[in-house]
Amino acid sequence: MINEEELIAWFRASTSYINAHRGKTFVIHLGGDALAHHNLSGIIHDLTLLHSLGVKLVLVHGARPHISAALAEADQTSVFENGLRITEAGHMETIKSTVGRLSIDLQASFSMGLSNSPMYGANITVCHGNYVTAKPYGVVYGIDYHLTGKVRKIQTENVKHQLNNGQIVLLSNLGHSLTGEVFNLSAEEVATEVAVALDADKLIMFTPGGGLLDEKQQLITTLNAEEAERLIKEYSDGDERKNSLVLGLSAALRAYRQGVPRSHLVSYEEDGVLLLELFTKEGRGTLLSQDTLEELRTAGINDVGGILNLIRPLEEAGALVERSRDLLETEISNFLVIELEGTVIGCAALYPVCEESGEIACIAIHPDYRREKLGGRLLSELERKAEQQNLTYVYALTTVASHFFLENGFVELGVEALPNSRKPLYNYQRNSKILKKQLKG
Prior knowledge:
This protein is α/β, with parallel strands linked by helices and about 450 residues long.
């Protein structure tokens, strides 16, 4: 039974997002795995809703698993190099037939309009044309990629014309050359190049599983370029799911670096995840953004004022030890900050204690952002820095946040557990709880 009050509250809360998205251009990438998943119909319904709300949609689909299956059925050997399929001339008829069938099926999906369907009355028109000009990938390190290609040009004005006429533009992983040849492209590359060429407002990549997860299997909600690069390296040479995530994240990072303001990675396996990502504050995917993304970085001298503004209320409440501006300036290299649109909204510090241990201190999050799991991001990054410094343990002393540290793998100990260099500095009047964590390294 639908809770009517919650439904009304959700609609009202989503109004600002609806207004923000109207008239914007979104490029959507659906890989072959997503097309084969039973949740595809739900994704189509959600894309229909976006179209009905005035969002201009370009849908780029892949066909990797379908092509592999079709080639195997035809007793044709398919070889990959550097993540790209080597497309021999003899494979092309099978590939064209496979991709064409998928494109036709997708167009049919947007044509549904029965009275009991969420798409009733949508009257969506999907256009599919030769909007992608391709060129050969060539011979790389002695390997001839034959009819595997890469994007040469996007027919931008033609695509925009169709979008302005209220149509959804459907593109595949096939491109056409000036000599009349057809090339097999990476659908991820097509999606990226289209998003860049159109100055799209968003690139949305559908990925497998629960999306991008941290070491605690929690969803990573926001990323900056540096974190994206690190994850790509960590996920490389992983299982099939991680390889798919690398493709999606790499495409998002390329788009980010070429000016696409916001890229989202969302799961194709979870029903309604696209709507939750776009129309709720919490989201349900991973955002790589140029504008309002919180940036986690090492603090500099110019951050002292922002850190002081953040920690003063906590010092006055007795939750943090008071730090003067002079002291903070001398210790600033120990701090990390999270900055949002020029404002420091989070900070934390790692102080060396002895050769094998460090102390995590001064974790503070702006009250308006305490539900965003920013404290966990800061803690994870400090632990990573401690590992880079070859530390074995980290300590934390707190009067009010012991549960936060316990939930993140710390154990509570007595004063005797502190390193000898730290014991004389323990303030018995504050009676802080002492927590310790052994690092993976």
